Amino acid sequence: MLTTANFLQYTQWSGIATLVFAALTFLAFILKWGIRFRLVGTTGFMLVVTAGLFALSIVPLSRTVIPGAARYTLVYDNGSTQAVIATSPQITPTQLEATLRQAASNLFSYGRSGTQEDDKLTVRARTIIHQETGISVPVYLGEVKRSLISHQNSPVTVKIYTDNFAKLPKPNA
Q1: Nearest one of 158, 155, 149 to 114, comparing CA atoms
Q2: Comparing C-alpha atoms, which of 23, 91, 104 is closest to residue 63?
Q3: Are 90 and 171 in contact (CB under 8 A)?
Q4: How far lies 6's CA from each of 12, 20, 90, 98, in Å?
Q5: In what helix (H) or strand (E) does residue 73 lie, and over which residues does it extend?
Q6: Segment 14-55, tens digit of pLDDT
Q7: For residue 121, what is the enclosing H or E element?
Q8: Domain boundaries in the chain?
Q9: Phi, psi of 135 (to 5 degrees)
Q10: CA–CA separation, 92 vs 102, rounded Å?
Q11: 133 to each of 56, 129, 130, 171, how far by Cα in Å?
Q12: pTM metric for this prediction
């Protein structure tokens, strides 16, 4: 997987190529070459590529991996303060806690907007159980709350709904 250090190196090479194209474009205008306007477009494109690579070298692309976390799917996200993830019905409370912490970390973004009353991101975990043929019921297993303001030192509050785990089907042994 590409890291921010890789993108920084690509930015340097792209910046050098941009400067070469800029010099070539300047030379083309002085010597009145027929391709001088195409070189203007190429130089502009290289500027955009270099800026994009620089942005990728600043923002980390890696996701948080917490040991013991289970796979989850994001099923709802309002882009602000609420999100819902779906997990397997066979998840354990220990796995759920790790999964909620991982989801809260992965879904954190400085672009999320909170309100004055609620500056916390709430991620709820749910699963689907099938009570009868054709009837599916969502069961909420837990939630996690974290600050939308600070990513580093913000407290993370995990709440597991143990009474809802009793509703889950028992795995066949």
Answers
A1: 149
A2: 104
A3: yes
A4: 10, 21, 39, 30
A5: strand 73-77
A6: 999 999 999 999 999 999 999 999 999 999 999 999 999 998
A7: strand 120-132
A8: 4-58, 73-165
A9: -120, 115
A10: 15
A11: 48, 11, 7, 18
A12: 0.65
